[in-house]
Amino acid sequence: MHTHVTPFDLRAWKEGNRHDHRAGWKGASPEFGEITLTCPLPRTSPESLVSEVRGGLLPTASFEARGAHVEGIRLPTLNRSTLRVGDRVVYMTRNRFGATLEQRALAMRYAGDHYRLTALDKHGYVLVRAADDEDPGVTITVRETGRGKGRRLSVRVGGRAEGGDLALGLVFAGVDRSALTRIGAVRAGLSRATHFWVESQY
To answer: How far is 155 from 169, CA to CA, in rounded Å?
Structure first.
C-alpha cells in the first residue's frame, strides 16, 4: 500500500538499568501507527550489536553489525553489517573511497527496488527510492534536533511511501552513519594517504 505520509516526529526515550538498558525513539505516524526504534537492543553477544524499528503497519527492520570491533561502540556501524526488513535481507554497497557525500552514499536493493541513503550532515540523512515505470519514487528525510529530553527525530516524506520504505528510512537513525559524512570522507582520505605512504616505504 503506497500512501502519502503526514510529517511526524519521534521523541527520544530510555528505560531500564545498567544491565538492561534500552533507548531510542518513539512516536506515531498518522498513517502507519505507533513506531518504536530501539538503538541498540540489549546485547545477546559481545560481538553483535543490533538496532531495530517496529510497530504499527511497518515490517520490522533490523540493522546488525558483527565482529570484534563492536565491543566498544554504542551503535552498529556500516562495517560488517546485515540489514533485514521483514524476512528479507537488504543488499548494501558503498564506495568507501568517495570524496563527496553523493559518492559515499549507501546503495541498497530491497524487494526489487533500488535505494540510496545520503548523509546531509551528522544529524540528518535522506533515503531515496528510485523511480520506475510504475512509481515516481519516494524521498524520506530524517533529521535529529534538540537536546537532552527534548531531542526528537523529524520525519518528512515526499511521494507515496509504503511500510518497507519507512522502516528502511527509520532504522538508520539507530546506526553510526559517520562513514557517509564529509568527516568520514576526510578520514578515508587520510587513511588512504597513510596506507600509500606506508606501502611506498617498502
So the answer is: 9
User: What is the Cα–Cα distance from 86 to 64, expressed in whole angstroms?
Assistant: 14
pLDDT at 52 over 50: yes
Could you tell me the three cell numbers for 26?
518513539
Which residue from 70, 14, 17, 19 is spatially nearest to 37, judged by alpha carbons? 14
Query: 12-15, long-range: CB within 8 Å, 24+ apart, which pairs?
Result: 12/149, 12/151, 12/152
User: What is d(CA 40, CA 48) in angstroms, rounded to the nearest whole number?
Assistant: 10
Q: Could you count the other beta carbons within 10 Å of the beta carbon of residue 186?
A: 11
The pLDDT confidence band at residue 15, using thresholds 50, 70 and 90, is confident
Cell numbers for 12: 527520544
- CA 190 vs CA 97, 99, 167, 184, 195: distances in Å: 11, 11, 34, 10, 8
Strand partners, 121: 124
**Nearest to 1, CA basis, from 157, 142, 164, 132:** 164
CA-to-CA dists, residue 198 to 76, 99, 164, 188, 190, angstroms: 30, 21, 45, 15, 12
- Closest residue by Cα to residue 81 from 110, 46, 47: 47
How far apart CA 181 and CA 122 sit, in angstroms, is 7
195 pLDDT band (50/70/90 cuts)? very low
